[in-house]
Amino acid sequence: SAVISQKPSRDICQRGTSLTIQCQVDSQVTMMFWYRQQPGQSLTLIATANQGSEATYESGFVIDKFPISRPNLTFSTLTVSNMSPEDSSIYLCSVKTVDAYEQYFGPGTRLTVT
Amino acid sequence: RKEVEQDPGPFNVPEGATVAFNCTYSNSASQSFFWYRQDCRKEPKLLMSVYSSGNEDGRFTAQLNRASQYISLLIRDSKLSDSATYLCVVNLPYGGSQGNLIFGKGTKLSVKP
Fold it and tell me: Are the C-beta atoms of A109 and A11 separated by less than 8 Å?
């Protein structure tokens, strides 16, 4: 499986500010995803990060709130914009290769908005 | 009906016990099925994929019944280190959200000495 790192691992931010989370993979992967796990809840897919084009967002998530970049096959960023306390969550990067069904997750970024 | 439903738990079992988790999914076109394990404050880690014929990995056995849209995980000879939340995960068919995993809420297992 790929080795996935995320930065930062955690942060405490004030409402109204933005935070950019980075995801780095040690090998080229075909698909990268961003998930959110709110306290006590399971994971929800935010969007699929597409290389060189706009991300594909799931229902309930929009580009203005969660802009995503993927400049190459090993790196992606997720920005949480104009944060509110409801954005307090763990944000996880996930990757998948073309020849496998399995997805693997990064260690997550624990975000607290005050 | 929720897309992926699991036993609510928690399951509190003694070491050495056998424990079974059940899961049902609503989308009959689902293609791939997995069990993930999530430790407290950690990311989910793939435990095993679930194949139509059923599969076993050491003390863990996973079964899939497509007709009933039902997945199970059996853990034999439970260890203290098995304590975690077990997530039933289904991969929707390719479409607008390729590779979209749908997660159940998880079942918490606590193995006691």
Answer: yes
Residue A26 distance to chain B (closest CA, Å) = 17
Tell me which of A11-20, A58-67, B86-95, B100-109 is least confident.
Answer: B86-95
8 Å CB contact of A105 and B43: yes
> Beta partners for B80?
none
| Contact criterion met (CB below 8 Å) for A105 and A2 | no
**Token pair for B102:** 């749908």
Terminal-to-terminal C-alpha distance of chain B:
37
Strand, helix or coil at B5? strand
Is A41 part of the contact surface with chain B (CB cutoff 8 Å)? Answer: yes
The two three-digit tokens of residue A79, written as one number: 């920005």
| Overall size of chain B counted in residues | 113
Alpha carbon distances (Å) from A78 to A36, A106, B59:
11, 13, 38
Which chain B residues are closer than 8 Å to A94 by Cβ? 101
Query: Residue B83 in contact with residue B111, Cβ under 8 Å?
Result: yes
Predicted confidence (pLDDT) per residue in B23-56, tens digit: 999 988 888 899 999 999 899 999 999 988 889 9
